[in-house]
Amino acid sequence: MHSFAYRNGSLHCENVNLGDIAAAVGTPTFVYSKKTITEDLAEFRRALAPLNAHVAYAVKACSNKAILNLMAQQGVGFDIVSGGELWRIINAGGDPTLCTYAGVGKTEAEIRYALEKQIYCFNCESENELREINRIAGEMGVKAPVAVRVNPNVDAHTHKYITTGTNENKFGVDITRIEQVYATIAAEMPHLHIKGLQMHIGSQLTEVKPFVMAIEKVKPIVEKFKALYGIEFWSIGGGIGIVYDGCLASGKPEWWAAHPEQITIQSYADAIIPLLKDLGLTIIVEPGRRMVGNACAMLTTCLYEKKGEAKTFKMIDAGMNDIIRPALYEGYHEIWPVTEHSGDTITADIVGPICESGDFQAQNRAIADVKPGEVLAEMSAGAYGFSMSSTYNSRPLAAEVLVDGDKWHIIRRRQTLEQIVEDELLPE
User: Fold this and answer.
1) Cα 51 from chain centroid?
2) pLDDT, tens only, 231-265
3) Arithmetic mean of pLDDT, 150-171
4) Residue from 99, 121, 247, 355 carrying the catalytic annotation
5) What crossing angle do the helices spanning 83-91 and 65-73 adopt, rounded to 10°?
6) What is the pTM of this model?
7) Nearest 5 degrees, angle CA 111-CA 114-CA 120?
8) Active site includes 355?
């Protein structure tokens, strides 16, 4: 569940009126709920209590350092995919020794930096990457902790851009070769310490079955590697989906009662615990979207209305540079007026100011008939919202705000035009 609801005709985050934030900070602005994040983390820990489980937050979902600091305060580990993310975690007060480092293209500088900071483990994606880490670790006089990402060839039935677990994806080592790769590490790479095994089959999974299939497929290999190499952990990845369509209603228990098929943290745990509890290993889970996705709404202002022969358009001040999900992979976000409407709806496209036909947040959507000047809330914007934003069309990056009960804090100031160009130089 999340902490967004209408009260007395105004949309609130926890106990704060979103209209007050828009008036004070302007729009576009991303507003995060601290309560939603901490409660979801607590639910993960309760549900996975029968296992020796460790939560590693997937930083790429939302990497504001205030969010990372909140995670660190809760004792969470981190799943990172770049040296920059590792730097962010340290800068935010996080512990680098709780970081697992994934990604297919680690550079030499990034590998050295991660070894210097003594990360928990590299999750490696290819044999050549393993050889490079072995070489660098040898030069530094250390042993690098490694796991290999196995690709179990399980179709997660999600969007093609966010599936990662089939043999047509760039990620991981094919399950048919994984035993050979581990044998090669043991025989030929003396500067590596085999610490575990990792997998991740995709993002925004809405059913439990693919998780179960992947675990069942890989478990015999895990048992063999525990016997052969003494591995300490099995990272089973992330990917638990959130509610996008029905987001506002899903804040109420009765919505969940009416949607028993919707994956939850508890249904996920109930399905996987029987398969994992007898292994005697640390089980690492890597939620990102599930931790922050429903914990945020992006505030945007309606600028204009244009009625054409074919369509009605509502122009807003947030564009695909602010949230690219609808344009990139047909992502759906509910969009609600901050001041509640009780009148008729209108079918319209909600579009931004970017000079691209793909700059839309909703198409052919039944929405409240908002007028210019009204503030809208684009829901479920916490994951891959700000973290994928850009300054395309020379538009400054949005502000970010964290709500805590009846208080709120700016956690990123709105970027200025001067800041956009401050690193650009004219030739002498």
Assistant:
1) 23
2) 999 999 999 999 999 888 887 788 888 888 889 99
3) 61
4) 355
5) 70
6) 0.94
7) 120
8) yes
